[in-house]
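Annex B.
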Amino acid sequence: MAHYSYKTIRPLQGYEKIQFQNFLSFLIRNSIIQCQFSFNKEEHNNIVLILDVDECEANLHNCSTGILCTNTQGSFTCECDIDYSWIENQCVANPYREDARCGGYYIAPNGEVAICNKDSDYYCCSASYWCGSSDAHCLCSACINYRGLSR
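EGF-containing fibulin-like extracellular matrix protein 1: predicted structure tokens.
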């Protein structure tokens, strides 16, 4: 079932309606309001209702697996899911976990043993398999500092 959100244009009197290919435009006081192909339009008593089609819910988008579709007015955007990062023009499964667990038997979204995100504030993996940046996370003999820098 498609989801529609309504945007109401103020009551119109004497507006000029222009139809061109996939656009329906309304010229109002020198402003043009366009309804693109992903909009439906209804008119009631000189009030124009522009209905936005949710391309994500209606599966009318081209977002790939692992990419979130977000509906916008008249369109949609594609963003990487929380377990993915944008690398070299694509979403790639992360080597780290959002719950800050690392090493041992903790598996990351990419299917490998989880590491700590070197670009976060928790870049060291402790002997108890937690990411952090304290001495207990970075300076023990079993600790791994993913930034590779000495503290």
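The chain has three domains: 4-53, 56-93, 95-151. Residues 95-151 form one domain. Further annotation is deferred to the next reporting cycle.
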